[in-house]
Predict the structure.
Amino acid sequence: SAVISQKPSRDICQRGTSLTIQCQVDSQVTMMFWYRQQPGQSLTLIATANQGSEATYESGFVIDKFPISRPNLTFSTLTVSNMSPEDSSIYLCSVEGLAGLQETQYFGPGTRLLVL
Amino acid sequence: QKEVEQDPGPLSVPEGAIVSLNCTYSNSAFQYFMWYRQYSRKGPELLMYTYSSGNKEDGRFTAQVDKSSKYISLFIRDSQPSDSATYLCAMRAQFYFGTGTSLTVIP
């Protein structure tokens, strides 16, 4: 399994500002994923970060609001732009890996964001 | 209708109890089923995974899949305070293949 770290672990931000979340993996991976986990809800996929090309966004998420960078195979950033209180959530980075013979996802510790 | 339904709880049980956690799903294409455990202020960690219908046991944990009913369960025996966490079910589909493109390279 991959070891994934995220920075910052938590932050409190003002409305209208932007926050960039970093995700570092200890091994090279093809795809990295960004999820949002709102209170009492499950994980919602925001986008897939592809190295060397633009990220692929899920329905309801757009690049202007959540720009993503993927400069190499071990690192990605997600920016939450022009934040509002509705963006308060846990943001999780994940990668695919093998559990036995099965592809599954491994998650970072998450970034807890509170927007005032 | 959501593709995956899971009772959010909260669920509170005495130490030593048998816990049953369940999910239902609607997409018959789902073939791989996983349970993640998420401790407070941590990311989800893979707990168990299974492919076929039936039971898979790992220590105090048993994952059960019933594809005919589109229903999966996680049983925790002899539950411990350290089991206190949020449990997430996850599932994914099989691979889908196109019909294939026949290519002939003419010398």
